Amino acid sequence: MELGKKLEILSAGARYDVSCASSGSDRRAPPGGMGRNLPAGVCHSFAGDGRCISLLKLLFSNACRYDCAYCMNRASNDIPRASFSTQELTKLTLSFYRRNYIEGLFLSSGVFADPDIVMERLVEVARSLREDAGFGGYIHLKAIPGCGDRLLKKAGRYADRLSANIELPTAASLSKLAPDKSGKEILSSMRFIGESCAEAREDSRRIAATPDFAPAGQSTQLIVGATPDDDMALLGLAQSLYRRYRLRRVYYSAYLPVGLDARLPTGPPPLLREHRLYQADWLLRFYGFKAEELLNPALPNLCEEIDPKSAWALAHPEFFPVELSRASMEELMRVPGLGATSARRIVSARRAAKLKPELLPRLGLVMKRARYFLSLYGRALETSIAWEGLRPLLMDRPPASRTPLLGKAAWSGPSGKPMALAVQSQLEFVFP
Ligand code: SF4
């Protein structure tokens, strides 16, 4: 098959995987090599359909033995199949890089043979790029489910990032839609990658010549809306993965219908659901929230109308108002509308001088939402609105235009204290 045709088929096959981003690594080319992967988010961007367009995002092969119902490359799907050779892929990546079309490679594959054989091919492409061509650009390799640790170890030497996609949040969903995959095997790959990353970081503190192991860490993807699993299951799992396996990112990918199958919903979930999950995920990673604070069995889905932080604030009137003159960074960051930068500015400004209401806009704070939740020297910044009247002011859009969320009712009003959900043990719960 002509190379251009393969490229067309195998780039189309990769577009459903959103678990790529090139942030978090600053690999440089060795002397005489080429390429430079710029650090922290400079070299990635996403097209409207979720593709990471600065990376050459390809499948090695779209032939697959497995039959995951949500995947267009599944064995039972009648589509044209193609595979690259390792040499073709290496050449293609280098020629695209030289023309400045891409900044790196995201390489995944269907399971066209034994998982070890498939992983070996992916590793060989990365090895050849690094060692034969001196390629210093970004490489993200997919960990093929079921491949051995020896190959993951090799993959981590050449790749900036590795990702093992868990796809569905419970063992029951996985066995229903992806019966050939084992949640335990995927988690075991994640554990190995997480431990190897930590070891390499630790060793490099003592021995400068320690070889890299996936310096940009690992990520995974969860499909949203292909099963009735609620946001609590998705977010609880994400929290466990961050804690246990030190994942850099969990990507949420709204299910896109790829065929008729009675096990699958007929349409995609509203994109807003994916957006809310990303917002909640951000709160887990950077704002000190726990999944069980945002959701509980009585409230298993994120609110559609209001962002998760505002929804949490409305449910916790006892926490507010937050006193600007003495609140900690953590308390300030729980205020709707205030982020880490705003909280830092407040803390450093009050060290330098007494805070005054008229000085707050000069700190660059966006007070549109925050003013309802703040006080200064015991006086609320905004007294014209009663607590009960805040909800409409915090809505992202009017309820009339909303699209219903999948699953149960999204909002049941202030719920009092968060329930003590044992989210830490979520992994045992979903993958016993
Ligand atoms: S293993 Fe499943 S998700 Fe991956 S390519 Fe094959 S059918 Fe698709």
Chart the SSEs and their pairings:
Elements: H1 3-14, E1 55-59, H2 86-98, E2 104-108, H3 115-132, E3 138-142, H4 149-158, E4 161-163, H5 171-177, H6 183-206, E5 218-224, H7 231-245, E6 249-254, H8 271-286, H9 291-294, H10 308-315, E7 322-323, H11 329-332, H12 340-352, H13 367-370, E8 374-376, E9 379-380, H14 390-394, H15 426-430
Parallel strand pairs: 1-2, 2-3, 3-4, 4-5, 5-6, 7-8
Antiparallel strand pairs: 8-9
Helix pairs in contact: 2-3, 3-4, 4-6, 7-8
The structure holds iron/sulfur cluster.
Iron/sulfur cluster (SF4) binds next to loops.
Characterise the protein shown here.
- The chain is α/β, with parallel strands linked by helices.
- It folds into 2 domains: 3-294, Alpha-Beta Barrel (TIM Barrel), CATH 3.20.20; 308-398, no CATH class.
- The chain is 37% helix and 9% strand.
- The chain is built from 15 helices and 9 strands.
- It has helices at residues 3-14, 86-98, 115-132, 149-158, 171-177, 183-206, 231-245, 271-286, 291-294, 308-315, 329-332, 340-352, 367-370, 390-394, 426-430, and strands at 55-59, 104-108, 138-142, 161-163, 218-224, 249-254, 322-323, 374-376, 379-380.
- The strands form 2 sheets. The chain has a 6-stranded parallel β-sheet.
- Helix 3 (115-132) runs parallel beside helix 4 (149-158), helix 4 crosses helix 6 (183-206) and helix 7 packs parallel to helix 8.
- The chain is globular and about 70 Å long.
- It starts with a helix and ends with a helix.
- The structure holds iron/sulfur cluster.
- Iron/sulfur cluster (SF4) is lined by residues 64, 66, 68, 71, 73-74, 110-111, 178.
